[in-house]
Amino acid sequence: MIEWLHEMPTLLGAGLLCLIFVVPTLIGSVLLQPAVARLMSGEKDANTLVGLLLNAYTLFYGVLLALLSVSVFDNYGEAQQAIAREASSITTLYRNISSYPEPPRTILLDNLRRYVDEEIGPGWSHQRQDEASSQGMALVTQFGEQIMRFRPDRAMGEDMLHRETLHAFDQFVERRRARIQAAGTNIPTIMWYVVIIGAVLNVFVLWLFDLKRTTHFIFGGVLMVFIGLVIYMVAVLDRPFRGTHGLKPDDLVQARQLMDP
Q: Which of 13, 118, 125, 156 has its CB 3.0 to 4.6 Å from that of 8, i.e. a possible disulfide?
């Protein structure tokens, strides 16, 4: 949801989303607020009752936004860690394979380099679209087949090195899968509807107050700017690899630099 925000600069995206919330609120304060306030005209000390309602409502709505913020921030951090873990596994594989005899060493190292070049290049475009690179998967499969064909020489102590390499390869495959799957962890659409409808109800409760129009403008404007900023933050962090705020393959790039001949 709100996919178009990912392609906008921070100030433009945040400002536009705040305007989407603020402008209808201010227009409604002129056109709708007097009619809404009349719903409480028969109550004694209506503003006190509305204040109690608003306090209870904003408490639950604030908790919802806080939980969403923590959730997307954790997912963003996990996605970042997934890239770092995969890069660490690639570095371990490179160091182990560098001790292999020829010709398997050159073949495996070349394959590993081509894999990293794919993932930090064309493959990252797929990652930004929450997809896996088919070429990257093919290179991983080829790499695994090449390792399995290697027959270590026990007399040279290659069997222990080969076991460590197989273990490192298993870790690499798991961490690659975790990095790809991290792109698909996002907030369900139903929760976005709850957040948006909750913001509208927030304004409705605010309009129940019998206050001057200027006061409604100030309260409504400040409240909607804050809600707009929080929703913007949640939206852009919800897809950790997309848009201008998307994660970059920096750790993979560093791993590739270590593999230069």
A: 13
Question: Cα(4)–Cα(244) distance, rounded to whole angstroms?
Answer: 11
Instruction: Give strand ranges (E) for the chain.
Output: none
Task: Please give the single-letter amino acid code of residue 88.
Answer: S
Q: What does the block give as tokens for 239?
A: 């897809």
- Confirm if 120 and 253 have CB atoms less than 8 A apart: yes
pLDDT in tens, 30-83: 988 888 888 877 777 888 888 888 888 888 998 999 998 898 889 889 999 999
Contacts from 59-63 at CB under 8 Å and sequence distance 24+?
61/198, 61/202
CA angle 149/155/157 to nearest 5° reads 70
Three-state secondary structure call for residue 130 = coil
Taking the model in full, what pTM does it have? 0.81
Q: What is the distance between the alpha carbons of residues 244 and 60, in angstroms, rounded to a whole number?
A: 32
Give Cβ neighbours of residue 99 (< 8 Å, ≥ 6 apart). Answer: 105, 161
Chain centroid, CA 247 distance in Å: 8
